[in-house]
Write a sequence for this structure.
């Protein structure tokens, strides 16, 4: 290890210990185990700053946090899966004695023996780790693929195809709500129930937008003439959609960033109240 | 045989789920298979964990590049696993939820996973900003539309949007930036999303059929016969 790296490591370690002690003292009146809480908060801040250090360049602190994240996340998923699905859903259907051990109500049923099937499939899936018997994992994988395909076939056809088409056929002429005269129709440009022109325009935008968007996705015919013009409108509608999605994503990420900065300045450093 | 049995399983399971919609006596099969699926998914998590340890243990044993960080992964993994599986430090008895407030497992989630996860995602704000600066210059009409839509949404979700256009009278309130943002989300954005959803659903249906009928076999991996 180079001397400069050692210096950085020593500085970070010192700052960590100083922060831990100060945080522990600051939390004395709030928690019984104030030094443990101080350690957890300091470690949390250290991890936050380590990840942010990637903005400068890849470095050992980032790698440490990244590797720690991979390890704990994998274990977290396994533990939650074990307690909620295996213990919560499987054990009560298979074994009364195991249900008593885990202190959960046993569910008596006629077809409970079918639930041995996912256990067998699950164990076969673990065979993937063996070179010799790895082929056995294809059978549970085939079950997963078959289930996903079967459920998606119906689910997507219902909710994302027929339901979306049905929802697109909306009134294009005439306004919703009570008719208040031509003057009110053109003068009230609000999103409220009174803004009937806006509502009607919205319906047109939705109907034509979906129609033109679908035309853009239709590649069996050349996009020329009127068809091409409709396809061009479809592109505009899709661009608005991507712009809106982009705006939303940025907002989401920024709010996460604000959350982390608030944690650093409020919970850790205590600079802002 | 090693390929035909999985193909038959996919076909039978897929067809059974589709047919179950039309046959009331077996219509609950979808729910049961859903539970089966989630149980197998847990074993898939175990498989993932096992594979992770296998890979990182190999790195540690061989002392390959950055093996010290693999040690961090392994230690973190086992610490979280042992604390979670044995409910160490959990309040109450074995029936208490593993994610109960105050349990060591939940503390580790709050002080380890949560900051790591949210900072990782927050980091994307910087990369998105830098990428959008390069990509969203109003070079043509389409890029301009995208830019304007994103700008209105961003402005409409902040107090600045109201500050700038709050003076517009109620009868023309559609032109207030926050309302315009709502309108964009509920009308043109909805239309675009719907067109995309319909397109995706056709793709999913076609792919599901290819899988069930055994035309698509790439998920079976290698080409060993038998």
């Amino acid at each position: 290890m180079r001397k400069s790296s050692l210096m950085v490591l020593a500085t970070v370690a010192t700052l960590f210990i100083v922060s831990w002690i100060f945080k522990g003292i600051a939390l004395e009146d709030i928690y019984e185990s104030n030094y443990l809480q101080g350690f957890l908060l300091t470690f949390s801040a250290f991890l936050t700053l380590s990840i942010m250090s990637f903005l400068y360049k890849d470095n050992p602190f980032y790698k440490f946090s990244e590797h720690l994240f991979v390890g704990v996340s994998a274990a977290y998923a396994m533990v939650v899966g074990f307690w909620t699905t295996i213990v919560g859903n499987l054990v009560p259907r298979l074994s009364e004695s195991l249900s008593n051990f885990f202190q959960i109500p046993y569910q008596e049923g006629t077809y409970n023996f079918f639930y041995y099937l996912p256990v067998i499939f699950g164990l076969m899936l673990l065979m993937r780790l063996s070179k010799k018997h790895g082929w056995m994992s294809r059978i549970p994988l085939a079950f997963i693929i078959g289930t996903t395909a079967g459920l998606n076939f119906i689910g997507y056809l219902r909710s994302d195809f027929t339901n979306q088409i049905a929802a697109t056929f909306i009134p294009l002429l005439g306004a919703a709500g009570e008719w208040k005269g031509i003057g009110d129709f053109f003068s009230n440009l609000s999103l409220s129930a009174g803004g009937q022109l806006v509502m009607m325009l919205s319906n047109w935008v939705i109907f034509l937008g979906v129609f033109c968007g679908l035309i853009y996705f239709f590649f069996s015919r050349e996009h020329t003439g009127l068809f091409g013009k409709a396809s061009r409108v479809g592109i505009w509608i899709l661009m608005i959609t991507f712009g809106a999605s982009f705006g939303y994503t940025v907002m989401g990420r920024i709010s996460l960033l604000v959350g982390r900065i608030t944690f650093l300045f409020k919970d850790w450093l205590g600079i802002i109240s | 045989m090693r390929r035909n049995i999985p193909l038959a399983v996919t076909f039978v399971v897929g067809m059974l789920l589709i047919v179950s919609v039309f046959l009331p006596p077996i219509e609950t099969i979808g729910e049961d298979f859903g539970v089966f699926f989630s149980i197998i998914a847990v074993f898939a998590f175990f498989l993932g964990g096992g594979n992770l340890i296998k890979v990182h243990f190999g790195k540690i044993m061989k002392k390959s590049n950055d093996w010290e960080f693999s040690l961090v992964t392994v230690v973190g993994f086992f610490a979280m696993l042992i604390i979670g599986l044995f409910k160490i430090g959990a309040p109450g008895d074995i029936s208490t939820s593993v994610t109960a407030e105050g349990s060591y497992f939940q503390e580790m989630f709050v002080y380890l996973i949560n900051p790591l996860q949210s900072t990782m995602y927050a980091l994307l704000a910087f990369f998105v900003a830098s990428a959008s600066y390069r990509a969203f210059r109003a070079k043509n009409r389409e890029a301009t539309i995208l830019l304007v839509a994103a700008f209105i949404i961003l402005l409409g979700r902040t107090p600045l949007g109201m500050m700038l256009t709050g003076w517009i009278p109620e009868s023309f309130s559609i032109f207030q930036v926050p309302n315009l943002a709502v309108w964009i989300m509920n009308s043109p954005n909805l239309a675009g999303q719907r067109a995309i959803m319909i397109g995706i659903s056709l793709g999913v249906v076609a792919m599901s059929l290819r899988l069930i009928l055994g035309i698509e076999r790439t998920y079976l991996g290698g080409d060993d016969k038998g």
